[in-house]
Amino acid sequence: MNSIKPTTSARLAWFVGRRFGGSNNNSQLVSFISGISTVGLVLGVAMLVVVVAIMNGFDRDLRTKILSVVPQASLFHRDGIENWPQEIERISTLPGYERVEAAAPFVHLEGMISRGKTVIPALVYGVDPVLEADVSHITDYLHFETLQRLGQEPNSFVLGKGLAEKLSVAVGDTVSFIAPKPNGRAKAAGVVQLKIIALLETRTELDHKLGVMSLNQASKLTTIPGTVTGIRLRLYDLFDAPWVVSGISRQLPYGYYTSDWTRTHGNLYHAVQMSSSLVSLLLVLIIGIAVFNVVSTLVLAVVEKQGDIAILRTMGASPGDILRIFMVQGSVVGLLGTGIGVLVGLGLSWVAPHLLVAIEQLSGTDILRSDIYPVSDLPIDNRWQDIVFIAIVALVLSFLASIYPAWKASKIQPAEALRYD
């Protein structure tokens, strides 16, 4: 018996495999299990696309919102820094500074903000209105004119929106800031009346603990008035912060110490990364379970198609041809489920933020509160690299799941299959 030519064999496998996969003559059980397998694969791929997009969104917001306002890296001196312009100039000549994009002075104050009988702990930064725009993205949330007013108007203050809501204050109101004096350097805490000129709304946890005032005003409330707490650095790559700032500090005189975002927000970042990895692994396993339902579908298809397989064998199809036919059938199911799953996932990731807003409005509750979670919006960031990776994983698993049933089909002997037909 002549075997089928290779080119004809490939066409046969593709044609018959597609016909077997989409045949209306399948038994109801085979059709039902095939549909369940496809739906399971669609849901697994779609959920993985959505979850990875959300995790990427949290990662993006952490970098672009929280880490764009708080210092990426800071140099402190135990006694404060008096002549900060000269100190910045000196630091800029040190090895390692070439990885620093900009530097600016700041004053770090931890105290209490009060209004009437309400007192709330707060973190207050004193900033230089001009230089601050170079080291942070604060101008994404405040007009540059607002920063200029901080330096021009005495006792002006920018308050986080979350703090303002807790204190029941608005722009134009006055609050009291109480700055404790540590180490017994002063007999009483520093108290100043501040007028709110703007509200800071980043829609992150910073809105519930951060306030901003001018550098000079904040310096008056420190233990050594006239000094700044430290110098804030913005790096080209924020992941260089730990070793860059430590390398610079080792070249400075005694009394300097450092901090960077991995100490202040590193736990949050690593938690996001770990959650992303664990959830992605879980969903990949779910995809694997859905994909291996293809095995059940193809095994049943092989049993049902024994007569057709025997006829193909008697017409000259080789065991390899039968193997390829059922590999094509399984791959078509995987391709269909993966393609639809990716499209559904992209659609759900686009709808999810709007759906969350609608649920919050209907229920009258804030599901994502920035005083509990890092952000108050559902962040979405679809990256084509992740989508391609998810699709490849699903397709590879579908291909692997097709091997065993296809191999079993190739071992069917025509005489045995046709004996009882």
Automatic annotation (TrEMBL):
Its main location: membrane. It is found in: Cell membrane. The keyword Membrane applies. The chain crosses the membrane at residues 29-55, 278-302, 322-346, 387-407. Residues 34-200 form the MacB-like periplasmic core domain. Keywords: Cell membrane, Lipoprotein, Membrane, Transmembrane, Transmembrane helix, Transport. It is a multi-pass membrane protein. Residues 281-414 form the ABC3 transporter permease C-terminal domain. It comes from the Bacteria. Belongs to the ABC-4 integral membrane protein family. LolC/E subfamily. This is Lipoprotein-releasing ABC transporter permease subunit. It comes from Sessilibacter corallicola.
